[in-house]
């Protein structure tokens, strides 16, 4: 109820003075609230052979298999697997580059 009254008073104040600071203050999140985001976790390529987009990796090595490397676990996943492109911290890489960088294929997956 109190917030409704405050909102109405702010709107009246804005209408009378043309000052929008009241509305801006009302939309500011409280200090204790955490920011929310609907976007997935950022992909974080760590070297020049790692790519945020699958198409970039395919352009880098068109004849090699593109895999998704989990940068935390050092395991890579093949296309079609549920973890392909979906771990929190990872990148698209050519399979030959992944093995050269010390990554290994997931044990429960077969090369596609």
Domains, number: 2
Strand order of the largest sheet: 3-1-2-4
**What class do helices, strands and sheet pairing give?**
alpha+beta
Q: Which sequence of SSEs, written as H and E, runs from N to C?
A: HHHEEEHE
Low-confidence spans: pLDDT under 50, at least 5 residues?
Answer: 22-26, 33-42
State the shape: globular
Main sheet specs = 4 strands, mixed
Helix content: 25-40%
What do the pLDDT scores average to? 75
Counted by DSSP, the helix tally is 4
Radius of gyration: 24 Å
Q: Find the count of extended strands (DSSP E, 2+ residues).
A: 4
Distance between the termini: 60 Å
Provide structural commentary.
The protein is of the alpha+beta class and 112 residues long. A hairpin with a 4-residue loop joins strand 1 and strand 2. The protein contains four helices and four strands. It folds into two domains: 1-29, no CATH class; 54-105, no CATH class. It is globular and about 65 Å long.
Task: List its salient traits.
112 residues, 2 domains, globular
List the helices and strands and how they pair.
Blueprint (H helix, E strand, L loop, with lengths): L1 H16 L3 H7 L26 H7 L5 E5 L4 E3 L12 E5 H6 L3 E2 L7
Parallel strand pairs: 2-4
Antiparallel strand pairs: 1-2, 1-3
Helix pairs in contact: 1-2
Short description:
32% of the residues lie in helices and 13% in strands. With 112 residues, the protein is of the alpha+beta class.
């Amino acid at each position: 109820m109190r917030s409704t009254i405050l909102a109405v008073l702010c709107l009246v104040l804005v209408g009378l003075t043309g000052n929008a600071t009241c509305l801006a203050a009302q939309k500011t999140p409280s200090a204790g609230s955490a920011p929310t985001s609907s976007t997935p976790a950022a992909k974080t390529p760590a070297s020049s052979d790692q790519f945020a987009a699958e198409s970039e990796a395919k352009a880098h090595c068109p004849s090699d298999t593109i895999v998704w490397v989990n940068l935390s676990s050092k395991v890579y996943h093949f296309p079609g697997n549920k973890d392909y492109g979906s771990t929190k911290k990872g990148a698209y890489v050519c399979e030959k580059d992944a093995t050269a960088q010390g990554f290994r294929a997931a044990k429960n997956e077969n090369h596609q």
